Amino acid sequence: MRTIKKRLLTPGPTMVPERVLEALSRPVLYHRSPEFKEIFLDTRERLKKLFRTDGEVLILTSSGTGAMEAAVVNLFKPGDSAVVVVGGKFGERWKELCEVYGVRPVVIEVEWGRSVNPEDIEKAIKENPEVKGVLVQICETSTGTIHDVKGIGEVLKNYPDVLLIADGITAYGVYDIPTDEWGIDVAITGSQKALMTPPGLAVISLNERALKRLEEVETRSYYFDLKKELKNQKKGQTAYTTGTSLVVALNEALKMIEEEGLANVAKRHELLAKATRAGVEAIGLKLFSERPANGVTAIYAPEGINGQDVVKIAREEFGVTIAGGQAHLKGKIFRLSHMGYVDIFDVLTALEVTEFALYKLGYRKFSLGDSLRAAMEVIEKC
Question: How many CB atoms are located within 10 Å of the residue 79 CB?
Answer without folding.
Answer: 9
